[in-house]
Amino acid sequence: MNRAVELITRLSIDRASQVLSKMVRAGAKIVWEEMNEMDVAQLTERVSSEGDAVMGALIDLAGDIDLKFLCFLPERHACTVTDMILQKEIGTTREINELVRGAVQEIGNILASAVCNVFVSDFQIHMRPSPPMFVHDFQGSIFEEYLIRGVGDRNEIYVIETKFWIVRLDIPCSMYLVPAGGAKEMLMRIC
Questions:
Q1: The pTM is what?
Q2: Residue 166 above 50 pLDDT?
Q3: Buried/exposed 127-162: b ≥16 CB within 10 Å, e otherwise
């Protein structure tokens, strides 16, 4: 795999981790899981097997290179993360409402913007994030719908997968970058 693409990915993850840590005022650890071409059916099946209801944000990163960005966290932790972002006592938010949806979208926006900033500032690859689209469903359903829009009729998809935790409360989250259209080839040429 192209070492430059890996470098961009790792820098993006590091910046996103720093920004998220500041946002929730707790350590956030983001770990690079894998980056490779995967069979769409197998990837969707693997994600579907995790089975929990999640809340997340879908964002298009458009410009010189087009990427699809998806991040999500377990539904059961969304109220806690909202309290952290709003600097409220944990347990104050008890139901899914506009504040929770806004907090989840803002996490997506912050992480996607951190990724864009690495491309722009470090590699002069211009892109910008679209407004985040809030999603709330089972992990597999969100991922399958997201993949269908991202890959069209291809059987293989290039995926950069990361996991992250809000450390103090051990809240697991996931983040995916999927090159859209000819972005994979363009990344390989630019890097």
A1: 0.82
A2: yes
A3: bebeebeebbbbbbebbbebbeebbeeeeebbbbbb
